[in-house]
Amino acid sequence: MLRSFVSGAWELPVGEGTPLPDAVTGEEVARVSTAGIDRGAALEYGRKVGGPALRELTFHQRAALLKALASYLREHRDELYALSSRTGATLGDSKFDVDGGIAVLSAYASKARRELPNDTVFVEGDVEPLGKGGTFVGQHLCTPLPGVSVQINAFNFPVWGPLEKLAPAFVAGMPSLIKPASQTAYLTARLVELIVESELLPEGSVQLLCGDAGDLLDHLTEQDAVSFTGSADTARRLRAHPAIVGRSVRFNAEADSLNCSVLGPDATPGTAEFDLYVKQLVAEMTVKAGQKCTAIRRAFVPEALVDEVAEAVRARLAEVAVGNPANPDVRMGALASLGQREEVRRSLKPLLDAGRLLFGDPDRVEVVDADAERGAFISPILIRAEDAERAEPHEVEAFGPVSTLLPYRDAAQVVELAARGRGSLAGSVVTADTGFAREVVLGLAPWHGRVLVLNEEDAKESTGHGSPLPPLIHGGPGRAGGGEEMGGIRGIVHHMQRTAVQAGPGMLTALTGRWVPGAERTVTDVHPFRKHLEELRVGDTVVAGPRTVTLEDVERFAEFTGDTFYAHMDDEAAKANPFFGGRVAHGYLVVSFAAGLFVSPEPGPVLANYGLENLRFLTPVYPGDELTVTLTAKQISPRDGADYGEVRWDTDVTNQDGKSVAKYDVLTLVAKRPTG
Length: 676
Description:
α6 (185-198) links the parallel β8 (176-179) and β9 (206-208). The mean pLDDT is 95. The longest helix is centred in the N-terminal third of the chain and has 25 residues, at 91-115. The protein is 32% helix and 25% strand. It has 20 helices and 27 strands.
């Protein structure tokens, strides 16, 4: 009997439960039930124990825990691979699931450390001036929702599914309750056992509910969130749940969809693109036995190339051995359950009524080292639509190794046909023709969450049509659920509340921990570059200058750098320029002079200047102008586990009239105080 991990303990349900068979042999693997499990108490535990523990940590600290968890799970991959084979997955399928999930943890750990502050609050966007005098400003702050992120996952990716949802929620500071699909819940249960055994994550930050959801959603509050992966029909039912509607609970759905792949007219037999299309289509049909929400269901092919594509795909499918994943010769395993096989067969009937079977037999398949009836095996099925305009291929999905070839005339028609799927997670266009690619991609985009353009140029590094990636969104409009998962920082912010805060510059500085123009500056006898990280305070400032820019300076800089642009060197031409009216100093000369003014050159806590950001030249600098620079500590970010941190300095270079000639942020690495 699978246990649930709720309220800080492993709990066995009461009763006998429902048996979960091995997809390959039909033998019982485990039983599942939630009878006797208090779902409401589990959610409350997450809110009162897991949430506060996570919110005490900074983004960087949470990221470090994710990184450590990824390393721990990587050490236990073989165990997860072995259990995954009982779901019908080949070793390649298992790696797609297990390694893919671990990679999401690593990716979010890295992204959070690079792009989020070492703080508990995420400041989004620039400060917005709300008044003419600069004393009333606003900015968006993102704070973690003090609820629980409830995952309701599909059966096809029992490792990747939970981890790709866990990672952004965890970084945001929100605990997760994982509810896996029952068919493959034993693999998710072992994953969570490993997470708990690692003792890496704060108590209450991860819980597991094996079995049916029961009254789980009844206990949701306004601060909880639900992330669902599964069928479009189930997504619609869940979205309409009274608690979700009545309490405006955040609901994200990633639903199965009729994803398409388009072969360009230029991709004729013998071209790299033709071969790439055929290879990709077969892979999408057979990886995970076609049980992927991103798999290609509709294969659009130019009318003139349908026969050649059909023959090439059939030839490759004929080489696919179906059977026991333990056999190294097997390329496609079983569906997740016998019930799933029957569902695929039912869905095939309307598709076959609207087309012609080109490969496979829905009722018979030769298998290797297995019993074709005891295991949930089915042959890859390739169908050719008799009429691409018929509704069935654009409305019916057989969630298995099934794809339909649909001929099209031109770019306009294929865009219109693709839209009949009413929203998809992923689409692909295989072509080297940039004009065709642009027309089709822009036509597909409103109906797709992700579009891959595949050709010889990107093929070696492409992860393929069906692979969602952590930095990019995974989701789609319409039938695909209308939601977004991952997407880098977007996925983190989904688990936070964005609040517009209006205040004076000084108050906003105090609230955000970032110096805001107009707030008080602190000038002391100690140059800020002489202070260690712990001694620096936001607002610490040095004002240096003035320095007069001479014509000789401009000419020497031009000679030394080779930048002899006419505005710096040709008086007559510069006078004709409506923006200048005469010779001006180089912008980078201004930046260089500013550095010479504000720097404290002796060895000290400042270790390196590693960049400039947001540089803008605002007013021309003419020979004879006097430059003054004001450098203010804008943001101070300690690095955990390092003997230094990052300091962002607001830099304002002004002329003798007080006008800003250049503004930018200087980025430095500053040492912490030596210990011992």
